[in-house]
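Project outcomes to date are best conveyed with an example. Our students and postdoctoral researchers have been running inverse folding experiments weekly, and each run begins with a structure described purely in tokens. The record below, which covers 386 residues, was selected by the lab manager from last quarter's runs and is presented without edits.
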């Protein structure tokens, strides 16, 4: 115990006596911390912006058109497929989902959105936070998600104007906002939900599509009576309904275009940032040890053990790293307060804690070479007496 207190005293005393030097190193570690946490938040934010709607579906399975490779945009099902799915034993409910892009032009700055056609009260329609669901049929009503409200200050009761390309011409449609749901980003864009008939009327269409007024769903969200029977129900649905393929939510997310590659890129950036942190911390403390070889020699000459010398170095590294990580986490929090909602950052508590734990771990890891060197110093050689 005496050795521990002695090592702690030596470590803290040196940090205080050379506080300017150690503070600069802590600031470097703080900048690395900001970068690591920012990359972690960016990865989580991009992931949410790409998969948020699909991940939050009140469903266990997604029905696609056969041979669409689980791609939502490539799938286009027959109109009666949803009814056929609901008749399969084990299906609690099923909701068709129609996807397209559009733009709100009745704002000071136009906002690109995802416009999804769904059936109120069925899988595919998120639970309401405020207001009410839109009426059926061709009602000119919409439910917006929270990100639309945050970016535009729209509220329930407001009207919006949608621009849609019909053939070669732009058409404009007016919708009344009647409800609000939680954030439901789809393909990086904020989302509004409309009835299927309204969606078919307002979605961008080519000249050949203008002759049809029948909405064809891209996918069908399936809620099971027993959510544990996912694999069995996939097989049952594919056996009983022709021209479909079925996937669970995780498979659907992983097949969203660019999702896997995007996450791999962000994670690789995070790993390389941690490696840079190890090299920076290791290089600084190695220089520190080389500069105080005579002092370490004196400590050993008067009886200090290798354990005390090594422990003092470890405690010193932990203190400086903790200071840097603490400063960096505070700066990152302040930085996040000033970012606009259009930047896809999501500070996930678990992911941030993992990043902070890794940063605290790389301090001693980076200083390992210097610790080993300090322990191996010979007193006589250090004092140039050997």
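After processing, the design step wrote out the following sequence:
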């Amino acid at each position: 115990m005496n050795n521990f207190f002695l090592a702690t005293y030596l470590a803290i005393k040196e940090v205080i006596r050379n506080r300017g030097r150690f503070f600069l190193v802590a600031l470097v570690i703080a900048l690395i911390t900001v970068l690591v946490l920012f990359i972690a938040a960016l990865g989580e934010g991009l992931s949410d912006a790409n998969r948020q709607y699909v991940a939050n579906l009140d469903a266990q399975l997604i029905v696609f058109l056969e041979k669409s490779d689980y791609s939502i945009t490539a799938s286009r099902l027959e109109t009666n497929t949803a009814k056929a799915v609901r008749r399969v034993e084990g299906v609690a409910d099923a909701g068709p989902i129609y996807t397209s892009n559009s733009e709100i032009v009745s704002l000071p700055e136009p906002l690109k959105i995802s416009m999804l056609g769904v059936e109120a009260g069925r899988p595919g329609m998120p639970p309401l936070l405020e207001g009410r669901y839109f009426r059926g049929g061709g009602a000119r009503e919409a439910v917006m998600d929270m990100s639309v409200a945050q970016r535009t200050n729209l509220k329930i009761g407001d009207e919006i104007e949608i621009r849609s390309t019909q053939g070669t011409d732009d058409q404009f449609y007016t919708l009344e906002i009647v409800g609000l749901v939680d954030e439901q980003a789809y393909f990086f864009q904020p989302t509004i939900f409309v009835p299927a008939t309204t969606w078919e009327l307002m979605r961008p269409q080519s000249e050949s599509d203008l002759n049809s007024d029948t909405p064809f769903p891209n996918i069908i969200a399936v809620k099971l009576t027993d959510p544990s029977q996912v694999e069995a129900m996939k097989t049952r649905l594919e056996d009983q309904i022709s021209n479909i393929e079925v996937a669970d939510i995780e498979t659907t997310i992983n097949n969203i275009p660019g999702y896997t590659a995007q996450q791999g890129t962000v994670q690789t950036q995070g790993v390389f940032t941690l490696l840079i942190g190890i090299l920076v911390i290791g290089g600084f403390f190695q220089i520190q040890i080389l500069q105080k070889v005579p002092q370490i020699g004196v400590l050993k000459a008067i009886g200090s053990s290798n354990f005390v010398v090594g422990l003092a170095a470890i405690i010193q590294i932990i203190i400086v790293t903790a200071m840097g990580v603490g400063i960096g986490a505070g700066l990152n929090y302040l930085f996040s307060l000033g970012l606009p909602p259009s930047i896809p950052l999501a500070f996930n508590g678990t992911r941030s804690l993992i990043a902070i734990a890794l940063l605290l771990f790389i301090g001693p890891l980076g200083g390992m070479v210097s610790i080993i060197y300090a322990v191996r110093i010979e007193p006589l050689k250090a004092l140039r007496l050997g």
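The mean pLDDT is 84. The radius of gyration is 30 Å. The training component of this project remains on track.
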